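Work Package 4 report. The design task specified in the project plan requires that, given a folded chain encoded as C-alpha cells, an amino acid be chosen for each position. We show below one input record used in the internal validation round.
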C-alpha cells in the first residue's frame, strides 16, 4: 500500500510538471498572431510562445535598411473593406477597424518599425494570449490513443518547463541565414550583421553574393558611394513584374540593373557559389578564384603561390580585387528543435528551405502539426503570395477552419442561396474577395449544388490542393456536382524570361477569354467531386484536374468584372449550359405567360412569382420596363372607340397595374397535369 501511494504521488507530481493547452502556437510573428486571433474568437484553449519580449521580433531587425516592400495603398476609390484588402498587404484580419495598417502609416512602402508597432498593438488590443521570453528549444511526441491525433506534443522551453498540447501550430517563419561554405568564406560578411551606414563603404569595391531582394536592397543602399558593385548568383535575375511573384526582385530595389545595363561599372554575374574561393592578400584585398585552383595547394603559403583565373584568362570578369564580400542569400526554416519522432523533413530542390507539408498545411510526417506563415510557402513557392502577410492571413484562416471541423465538429462556414442568385454570387465574389485575389491558384470558392439544382451552398476560400478531401475537411456534402471559382494568370504569361509588355498582350473580347493573360476569374464545373487519383494526374501548372466544363471571364484592365455583355452574360450562359436551366430574371407578366405555355417554369418564376415573392409592381417600374422594351405599353391602347374598357386589353392593363396578383388559381393550374 505504501509503495502504491508513493508511486501515485510521483505520478501526480510528474503530471503537474506539464502545462496543458489544446493548441500551442510557436512564434508571435504575423502568422502566429493571426492564428491566435481566430482561436480566441472561437473560444479555444490556446497559448502562443514567443522567444522575444515583444511580437514580430523578425521585423525588429529585418529588412536591415528598414523599408518594407509590401504595399500600403491608402486610396482605391472604393469603400468596400474586403476589396481594399486586395491592396493592403500589411494588415492582419480582425473585426477591429483600428487595426488596419493604413491607420499606422501613409507610406506606400512602410517602415519596418511601423510593422513592429502594429503587431504589438494587434496583440495587446485584442488581448491575445502570448507568453513572451519563452524560447521553445525542443519538441517531441507522446503517444496516447486518447489524444486528438493519437499523440500529444511536448514542448520544452529554455527553463526546462514542459508544455503539453493536442495540436501544434508552427509559425516561426524562416529566420536561419542561408550560408554557403567554400574556401575563404570566413572573409564574407552576412546580411544580418553588415553595416547599413553607406559611409562605411565610401570608395570601396564590393561583391554581393545573392540575387534576391535582400541583395538588391543592400546594393541600393551603397550604390552612390562605392567604386563599383558586382553581384554573383547561380541563377539569373527574376523580375517580379515578369514572374508575377511578389517575392522576386521588386522595382523599388532594382537600381543596380540600371547602372549595369547603362554601363556605369556595376554588374551581374552567374555562377555556382560553391565553386568559388576567396583569397586574401597582404593588403587585405579579397581575390575571387575557383575552388579547383586551390586543390592540393598550400593556401597558407600566400597569394603569390595560388593560381588565379586571370593568370590563365587575362580578361576574367572578377579579376579586380574587392574590399568587401557580403552574403545575402535569404533564410531557411529552423529544423533543429524538432525531435526525429516528428519527422519534420526539408523539402526538395528550391523548396529545401521549407518543411514538407501537405496542401492542407499539415506536416507530411506528423498528424496535428500545421505550419503557418512564411514557413508554409512550399505549397505555392514562386506562384502565389502564401509566404507573405497578404497571402498567409488567408491560409491561416483556412487552417483554422479545417481544425474547427476536425476537432470541434464546426463545419466550414457556408451560405445557402436559391439557384437564381448563382450568377450574382459569383460576380460579387470575383469583384471584391481579397483571399481569392491574393492567393490566386491556391484558394478557391466552392459552390456545392443541391438536388435538382434548385439551390446551392457557397464556401469561401478553400485550399484547392485538398479538393478531393472536401467532404471530410469541411463537413459539407457534394453529391450533386460543384463549381470551383479561382483566379489565374495566363498559362504562358509569367516567367523570368517572359516579355510581359509585348504589343497586344491583353485580351478584350469575351470569345477570346480563354487566352487572357492577366489575373482573371476561372470557373471549373465538375459533375462529381474529383478524386485523389484525378488530383495527382492533373496537368503541370494546372491547379485543378480536367473539369467537365470550364469558363474564363475575360481579363479586365480595371479588374472590374461587371460589364453586362463582356462579363456577366457569358458567365450566365455557361452556368445555364452546365445546369440545363434558365437563370434569367423575369417580370411578372412573363412568368404569368410561362405558367400557361410551358411545362417547366424558369427557377426565377418558380421561386419568386409562384410563391408571391419578387418585385412589387408600381407605375414607375412599369414605365421603366416599357422604356427598356421588356413590356408592351398597354397604356397606349385606345379604349375610346367601340371596344369597351372591360375588354381583354383593358383587363391586361389593369392586371399590370395591380400590386398584388392572386396566385392560388395559378398554382392550381400549374400543378394540374390535365390542364
Amino acid at each position: 500500500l505504501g509503495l502504491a501511494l508513493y508511486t501515485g504521488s510521483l505520478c501526480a507530481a510528474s503530471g503537474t510538471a506539464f502545462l496543458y493547452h489544446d493548441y500551442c502556437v510557436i512564434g508571435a510573428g504575423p502568422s502566429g498572431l493571426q492564428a491566435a486571433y481566430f482561436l480566441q474568437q472561437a473560444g479555444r484553449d490556446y497559448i502562443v510562445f514567443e522567444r522575444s519580449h515583444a511580437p514580430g521580433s523578425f521585423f525588429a531587425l529585418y529588412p536591415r535598411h528598414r523599408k518594407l516592400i509590401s504595399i500600403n495603398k491608402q486610396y482605391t476609390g472604393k469603400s468596400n473593406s474586403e476589396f481594399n484588402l486586395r491592396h493592403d498587404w500589411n494588415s492582419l484580419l480582425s473585426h477591429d477597424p483600428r487595426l488596419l495598417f493604413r491607420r499606422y502609416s501613409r507610406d506606400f512602402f512602410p517602415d519596418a518599425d511601423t510593422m513592429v508597432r502594429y503587431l504589438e498593438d494587434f496583440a495587446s488590443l485584442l488581448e491575445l494570449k502570448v507568453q513572451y521570453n519563452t524560447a521553445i528549444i525542443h519538441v517531441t511526441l507522446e503517444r496516447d490513443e486518447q489524444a486528438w491525433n493519437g499523440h500529444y506534443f511536448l514542448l520544452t522551453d529554455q527553463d526546462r518547463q514542459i508544455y503539453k498540447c493536442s495540436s501544434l501550430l508552427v509559425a516561426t517563419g524562416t529566420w536561419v541565414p542561408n550560408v554557403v561554405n567554400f574556401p575563404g568564406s570566413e572573409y564574407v560578411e552576412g546580411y544580418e550583421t553588415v553595416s547599413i551606414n553607406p559611409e562605411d563603404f565610401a570608395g570601396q569595391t564590393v561583391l554581393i553574393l545573392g540575387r534576391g531582394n535582400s541583395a538588391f536592397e543592400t546594393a541600393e543602399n551603397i550604390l552612390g558611394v562605392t567604386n563599383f558593385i558586382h553581384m554573383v548568383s547561380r541563377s539569373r535575375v527574376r523580375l517580379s513584374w515578369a514572374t508575377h511573384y511578389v517575392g522576386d526582385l521588386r522595382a523599388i530595389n532594382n537600381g543596380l540593373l540600371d547602372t549595369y545595363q547603362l554601363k556605369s561599372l556595376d554588374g551581374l554575374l552567374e555562377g555556382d557559389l560553391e565553386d568559388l574561393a576567396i583569397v586574401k592578400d597582404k593588403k587585405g584585398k579579397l581575390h575571387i578564384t575557383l575552388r579547383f585552383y586551390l586543390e592540393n595547394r598550400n593556401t597558407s603559403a600566400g597569394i603569390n603561390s595560388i593560381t588565379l583565373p586571370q593568370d590563365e584568362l587575362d580578361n576574367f570578369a572578377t579579376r579586380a580585387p574587392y574590399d568587401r564580400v557580403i552574403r545575402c542569400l535569404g533564410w531557411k526554416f529552423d529544423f533543429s528543435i524538432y525531435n526525429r519522432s516528428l519527422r519534420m523533413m526539408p523539402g526538395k530542390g528550391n523548396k529545401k528551405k521549407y518543411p514538407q507539408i501537405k496542401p492542407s498545411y499539415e506536416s507530411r510526417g506528423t498528424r496535428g502539426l500545421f505550419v503557418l506563415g512564411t514557413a508554409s510557402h512550399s505549397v505555392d513557392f514562386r506562384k502565389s503570395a502564401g509566404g507573405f502577410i497578404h497571402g498567409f492571413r488567408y491560409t491561416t484562416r483556412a487552417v483554422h477552419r479545417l481544425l474547427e471541423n476536425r476537432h470541434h465538429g464546426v463545419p466550414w462556414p457556408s451560405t445557402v442561396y436559391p439557384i437564381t442568385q448563382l450568377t450574382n454570387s459569383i460576380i460579387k465574389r470575383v469583384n471584391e474577395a481579397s483571399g481569392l485575389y491574393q492567393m490566386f491558384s491556391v484558394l478557391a470558392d466552392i459552390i456545392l449544388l443541391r438536388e435538382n439544382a434548385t439551390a446551392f451552398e457557397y464556401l469561401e476560400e478553400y485550399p484547392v490542393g485538398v479538393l478531393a478531401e472536401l467532404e471530410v475537411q469541411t463537413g459539407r456534402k457534394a453529391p450533386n456536382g460543384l463549381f470551383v471559382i479561382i483566379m489565374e494568370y495566363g498559362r504562358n504569361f509569367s516567367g523570368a524570361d517572359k516579355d510581359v509588355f509585348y504589343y497586344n498582350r491583353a485580351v478584350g473580347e469575351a470569345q477570346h477569354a480563354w487566352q487572357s493573360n492577366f489575373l482573371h476569374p476561372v470557373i471549373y464545373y465538375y459533375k462529381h467531386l474529383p478524386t485523389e487519383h484525378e488530383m495527382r494526374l492533373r496537368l503541370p501548372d494546372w491547379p485543378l484536374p480536367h473539369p467537365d466544363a470550364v469558363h474564363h471571364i475575360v481579363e479586365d484592365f480595371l479588374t472590374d468584372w461587371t460589364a453586362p455583355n463582356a462579363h456577366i452574360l457569358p458567365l450566365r450562359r455557361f452556368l445555364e449550359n452546365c445546369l440545363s436551366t434558365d437563370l434569367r430574371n423575369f417580370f411578372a407578366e412573363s412568368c404569368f405567360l410561362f405558367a400557361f405555355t410551358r411545362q417547366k417554369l424558369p427557377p426565377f418564376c418558380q421561386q419568386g412569382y409562384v410563391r408571391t415573392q419578387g418585385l412589387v409592381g408600381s407605375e414607375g417600374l412599369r414605365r421603366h420596363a416599357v422604356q427598356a422594351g421588356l413590356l408592351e405599353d398597354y397604356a397606349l391602347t385606345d379604349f375610346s372607340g367601340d371596344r369597351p374598357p372591360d375588354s381583354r386589353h383593358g383587363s391586361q392593363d389593369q392586371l399590370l397595374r395591380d400590386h398584388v396578383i392572386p396566385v392560388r388559381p395559378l398554382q392550381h393550374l400549374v400543378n394540374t397535369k390535365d390542364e
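The first strand starts at residue 18 and ends at 26. Validation will be extended to a larger panel in the next phase.
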